[in-house]
Amino acid sequence: MANGSVGVKENKKTASVPQEKSTFRHWSLLCIGLMFVITAVFFSSFIFSDKMMASSDEIVNVDMKEFTRTSFVKHGQAPEWFNTRLSGMPAIDAMLSDALYPPTMLVRVFLPVYRSFGFMMVIHIFLAGVFFFVMLRRSFGVARLAAFAGALFYMLSPQFVTHVNPGHSGKMFVIAWLPFVVWRLRSLLSIPTLRNAALMALGVAMMILSPHVQMTYFVLMGLFLYWAADGVKAIVEKEEKRRIIGKAVYFWIAVFLGLGISFVQLYPSFMFVREAFSVRGVDRGFEFAASWSLNWAEFFSLWVHEFGNSLQYYWGKNHFKLNTEYSGMIPLLLSVLAIASKPKSMWRLFWAGVAVLSVIFSLGANTPFFTAAYHIIPGVRRFRAPSMMMFWFTFSTALMSVFFIKDLLGRRFEISGGQLRKWSTGLWAALGGVTLTAILFSLEPVVTSFAASMMGGGDAHRVFQVNFSEKFVPALWLWWLFTAIALGMFIAVIKGKIKVNTFVCALIIMSTIDMVKVNNQFYSVESPRKYFYQSDATINGLKSEFVKAPFRVFSLPGAFPMKNQEGAYGLEGVSGFHDNELICYRAFRGDQSDLHYIADIAEITRDGQMRLSMAKIAGRTPFLDLANVEYILAGSGTGGISKLRNPTALGRLSYVPDFVVLPEDRVINALKSGEYDYRTTAALLEEPDLPFNRNDLKDGNRQEPSAIVGVDADINTDNNAADDDTRSIADDGAQSSAIVDNKLKVEWKKYTPNFRIAAVTMPADGFLRLSEVYYPGWRIKVDGAPVKYYRSDMAWMAIPLKAGSYEVVMEPKSLYLDFAFKVTVVFTLITLAVLTFGFVRRRGKVA
To answer: To bridge 571 with a disulfide, which of 352, 566, 797, 832 should be the other Cys (CB 3.0-4.6 Å)?
Structure first.
């Protein structure tokens, strides 16, 4: 299978490695064992400790992971409503992280959350190496040494490994599965069978379940290009039409099988966005799609990483940078030599083209290419951060490096005469060019002039100057040293002065040193205590109180070390961030900065500073009240949490005697201006069907604000004060004590992620308002009968009820999960049947 072409049948060794056949398993296992050891050594400070990986997004999402684990382990439920941040949102529809990714589900059951996400990333780094090694051995037919080198180039690539710092685990899962999918695609195109289609489908499904849809979308773009290139090659070489059509049919069968297996993840999230429930459902234009592009400072950092150091001394035009796209100096050099070795090889040119295209796409608005892609390629306008595409650059350069090493081991460079003089002259010229480049870029005025247009705003110039002397120049000369050694040894190889294996081992060592040097800048561990071992009395008191009845908290900036931390302690918050936040709720809270919540409790001082206003907190706080915010949390100044009670908070369930109908675009301003009294009136978006007479409601049931029962005007700032409420939630269905909230009697019987039961007594005809975020997936029953609920006060729900006692059952449901799950089951069974039949058939042939 020279040059990476498809055509050698699966399971047959190529001519390049026949001598290894008898010892294949033992030596291959040794290579995999070495990859395991290298991974374990690099991450030893995490693996062999009780610490957690310092991964910002993973830490920010600990509430999501703790919530998922609790749902599975404690309640035996796959959560359909994620209630620990943003007042709640549909879990599967809005994409609850990696909740449906099988490896995560398994690891999270056995490990605490603060350890599980770190182990998941480490496991997938090792898995990426294994898949790349197997792909090279089984599909490309390369020698073990070359396969081992390629696996290390891929699994240790900073573009891959540095994702541990921002905690982009979903991206890492996709990158890890990529070589498996490419392997199975090549097998499929070599031997078009249902079995090979099913195996490729499993890899595609795992990527989608990861659940990084954008990365998987980019993978499918690359797979499509490979299939198309293979088809063009087949036509040019005049393959049988039947075979060409068969490969096309099985390729698309594999894609659709993969989509079908992962339909349970893909379809709900796709529909959630398409139906514009999510903030992503709104087309935010080219600027959004091009945001977080690779910029020119980062582009030149593909050469020497520290040119625009992406962590400590970042001076480029992105807001900040927590990972790098750098793929290593040795793979990049060997990729160039691979093309020089066989410049007419179709597949080398193809993979070089993939590398170049991925860079151009990643540059976003910095080139016209992305503008064309934005308008032409379906789906591009829905995503942002085109620099994610750079994983294809890493894959391509690692693969082309192996092509060059394969040439070395295959005696391609046992040359003499004119060919030897040509290669020697070229390599000496390259060595001179490398030296001249290092000298020129060691001169600060030269580099400053060169990089001036690449710098961001603020103090970018000062950061650039510091980075130049402290980081770039030393790294530049290390690049020169390693490149000079590589070129010098290559000259010695072609002249027969040193052995090829020695050269390859030197390349592996230099590449490992280079990649580990960069990866170390982005890897660290820390104690989990501030996230998971919080012994703060306020937190413990709130947890105990929440067990009695549900409520929410609003955390001021600085209350917790990171956003979204409330759920780590079993609490529910109203703030935070999620890419698929419900659009009606974002409007209610005042966008991502919580403007409406802040306005309820803060005032601007004469010197322009913002501070809490006790007068506001004790008075009218419509947004916090409607959101069931009973406590405002802030940092105590001593490393703990302080709480401030919201005396006018409405309960999770409350009684409203009257209603008004307002258009959606008027509700927020009506709440701000006091156009209607939210405590006695619900603002609906449509005229409701009432089970009682509206005139009776107006005449007899309207309440004045002063008549509301259950409002506590005292502000509790005592961290250790216990609340006197007698509310309770019984997870196992036990009866709880009755409370009074605006004359509504409530007895909570059950409260789990997917199931809530409350016994309520309506004091008069009116509305039962639910401080749960409106979503059409909710199923609400009153005394066992489904009832219609109405969107209320922009983001909440209300049910018209007559006076009396009822049992209210609330079940948050996905709008799309039932159908999606059935599709997934059908496609999974089909795939398993195909694989089982193939396995039995192959075993029968062996027998």
So the answer is: 566
Question: 451 with 464: CB under 8 angstroms?
Answer: yes
Contact 339, 507 (CB under 8 A): no
Instruction: Say if strands 81-82 and 89-90 run parallel, antiparallel, or are unpaired.
Output: antiparallel
Measured CA to CA, the distance from residue 624 to residue 650 in angstroms comes to: 9
| Total Cβ atoms within 10 A of residue 703 | 21
Reference 97, options 73, 124, 120, 130; nearest CA is: 120
Residues of the chain above pLDDT 70, percent: 90
Structure confidence by residue, pLDDT tens digits, 595-607: 999 999 998 777 7
Per cent of the chain over pLDDT 90 is: 69
CA distance 667 to 86: 19
Task: Count the alpha carbons within 13 Å of 358 in the hemisphere toward its beta carbon.
Answer: 25
- Using DSSP, state whether 565 is helix, strand or coil: coil
* Residue of 546 and 8 predicted with greater confidence: 546
CA distance 826 to 473: 58
**Nearest 5°: CA angle at 103, between 141 and 529?**
125
Strands 681-684 and 658-661, by their bridges, are parallel
823-845 CB burial, b ≥16 within 10 A, e <16: bbeebbebbeebbeebeeeeeee
Q: Which of 786, 605, 798, 586 is nearest to 687 (CA)?
A: 798
Give the Cβ contact number of residue 412 at 10 Å. 14
Phi, psi of 46, deg, nearest 5: -95, -50
For residue 359, give the nearest of 317, 331, 315, 392 by alpha carbon.
392
β-pair partners for 230: none
The amino acid sitting at 784 is: G
Confidence (pTM): 0.88
Contacts of 193 (CB under 8 A, 6+ apart): 250, 838
Separation between Cα atoms, residue 624 and residue 553, nearest integer Å: 9
Please report where in the chains the tokens 């056995």 appear, as a residue: 110
3-state secondary structure of 264: helix
How far apart, in Å, are the Cα atoms of 94 and each of 75, 282, 581, 814?
21, 15, 7, 9
Listed in sequence order, the residues at least 6 apart from 308 whose beta carbon sits closer than 8 Å to its beta carbon are 297, 298, 300, 301, 314, 315, 316, 451, 454, 467
CA gap 518, 521 in Å, rounded = 6
On the CB side of 101, how many CA atoms lie within 13 Å of its CA? Answer: 29
Q: Is the link from the previous residue into 812 a cis peptide, with omega within 30 of 0?
A: no
Measured at the CA of 536, the angle between CA 533 and CA 538, to 5 degrees, comes to 135
Instruction: Give the Cα separation of 104 and 108 in Å (integer).
Output: 6
Structure confidence at residue 742 (pLDDT): 53
CA 66, CA 601: separation in Å to the nearest integer?
30
Cβ within 8 Å of residue 122, ≥6 positions away: 39, 43, 46, 47
> Can you tell me the distance from the alpha carbon of 77 to that of 88, in angstroms, rounded to the nearest whole number?
17
